[in-house]
Specification:
Elements (H helix, E strand, L loop, with lengths): L2 E10 L2 E11 L4 E5 L6 H9 L6 E6 L2 E2 L6 H5 L2 E4 L11 H8 L6 H14 L1 H5 L10 H13 L5 E5 L7 H16 L3 E6 L2 H7 L2 E6 L2 E7 H6 L1 H7 L9 H6 L1
Parallel strand pairs: 3-8, 3-9, 6-7, 7-8
Antiparallel strand pairs: 1-2, 1-4, 4-5, 9-10
Helix pairs in contact: 3-6
Bound molecules: adenosine-5'-triphosphate.
Adenosine-5'-triphosphate (ATP) binds next to strand 2 and helix 1.
Amino acid sequence: MLLELIGLEVAYGGIKAVKGIDLAVARGELVCLIGANGAGKTTTLKAVCGLVYPRAGRVYYDGDDITGTPSHRPVARGLAMVPEGRGIFRQLTVEENLAMGAFVRGDRQGVRRDLEQVFELFPRLAERRTQSGGTLSGGEQQMLAIGRAMMSRPKLLLLDEPSMGLAPLLVQRIFQTVQEISREGVTILLIEQNARLALEIAVRGYVMESGTITLAGPAAELLADPKVREAYLGEIVAAEPAIERDRA
Ligand code: ATP
């Protein structure tokens, strides 16, 4: 396993946001963590990155216990996070933002190559390479945030709600690209409220509710699960008609 959470518990003062969850991501896997607003998904990611200190449980990354390790260390070891709200540098150009992602790398030629690769993945960014980040649309900023994370050559890419606030067509584009990045061998943990799209591209998924994992399994099984379909895919799952049942 590249990432393994065991009995992870995180609290904000008296509020338990994550209540002892187990979650694992194998090398090369694309795993999604879905759940409603406030379920504790972002807090889980923050615990992986060392942005919040867990009250209990362990975080293992690439064979090491990194529980509570300050965030810069895992980052230097190939863990990249694309936060909700993107967090790009508004004053810097697209190219400069991408260069910031490669800050910890020494291989200049490799950085150049990866820059071109990001521009291939996101042609829109190539067109706007000299524009400042703040002038980009929401979708382009999301592309830039993902591109910047790619520039650090991550082993593990953590994506927090890449679909947030984007028009459906752009969401499709972003998810296609996430799938392409996964095919290139990058391990991905994707956090999403858009359960359908996330489960369609992921190999496995976890469902989080009020700080606990309530369901886990292959993404195709979760997509077919009546509980998931009803609660997260907005479908009305046909139940036994009440009248028929009462008559029987
Ligand atoms: P979202 O989709 O909004 O990001 P989420 O599933 O990621 O939701 P979290 O952001 O992890 O959920 O929040 C889990 C719980 O912890 C919520 O009840 C939230 O109000 C609470 N919470 C999150 N951050 C803080 C904080 N800094 N201080 C206090 N409570 C917090």
